[in-house]
Amino acid sequence: MTIDHGVELDMIAPPSTDQLFAVIGRHGQVPFDEIRRHEGGRVYAVERQFVEEADPASAGRLELMPVDVHTELCVVANEKHDLPPPFTHRLCGRRMRDVQNSMYRHLPVIRRRHPHNPAFLHPDDIAALGVSDGARVRIRSAHGSITAALKSDDTV
Predict the structure, then answer these.
(1) Contact (Cβ atoms closer than 8 angstroms) between residue 139 and residue 148
(2) Is residue 104 part of a domain?
(3) pLDDT digits (tens), the chain, 156 positions
(4) Residue 98's domain spans which residues?
């Protein structure tokens, strides 16, 4: 298997962390082997880098809904979704500020801001379940279950 512009990886013997860092940083201004020689780090005198000027034809523009994404979302929106009993809700992932996947959750400032990852549910759904915001509930799927604290969110 190859990654990043044709660098071969052995699929039988996984590469070490250092080998992956060497691949990722192979075009850097300081060779990875040089960085490894200085345990604890070192400041290097390297050439300053600058961001190039934006293309005037697209400067300040961000395409939020490319045509292919719009087409795919329309197909999904028109699909029939029959949830098999007893599952009454659909689980979807949600990004949280300050957290990337599971990174940074161990930091004290993040733990204070987000002591847990809540299960966001519309207030009407919380009321229909006969529980309240913050209640601990068990979420079940065909694969298992997990306990979570509810958090009311009228955008869900």
Answers:
(1) yes
(2) yes
(3) 555 557 888 888 988 899 888 888 888 999 999 999 998 889 999 999 888 888 888 777 777 888 999 999 999 888 877 766 678 888 887 877 777 777 777 888 888 888 888 899 999 999 999 999 999 999 988 888 999 999 999 998
(4) 85-152
Distances (CA, A) of 102 to 14, 97, 98, 107: 23, 12, 10, 11
Cα dihedral 77/82/85/89 (nearest 10) = 10
Number of domains, the chain: 2
How wide is the angle at C-alpha 130 spanned by C-alphas 128 and 136, nearest 5°?
115
Retrieve residue 52's tokens. Answer: 């190039």
Burial tier of 32 (Cβ tally within 10 Å: 0-12, 13-18, 19+): middle
Could you tell me if residue 46 is inside a domain? no
Residue 41 lies in a domain: no
Does some domain include residue 49?
no
- Report the alpha-carbon distance of residue 86 to residue 71 in Å, rounded: 32
Q: Where are the beta strands (DSSP E) in the chain?
A: 2-3, 7-8, 119-121, 136-141, 144-152
Residue with tokens 């329309």: 74
Q: How far apart are CA 124 and CA 88, in angstroms?
A: 14
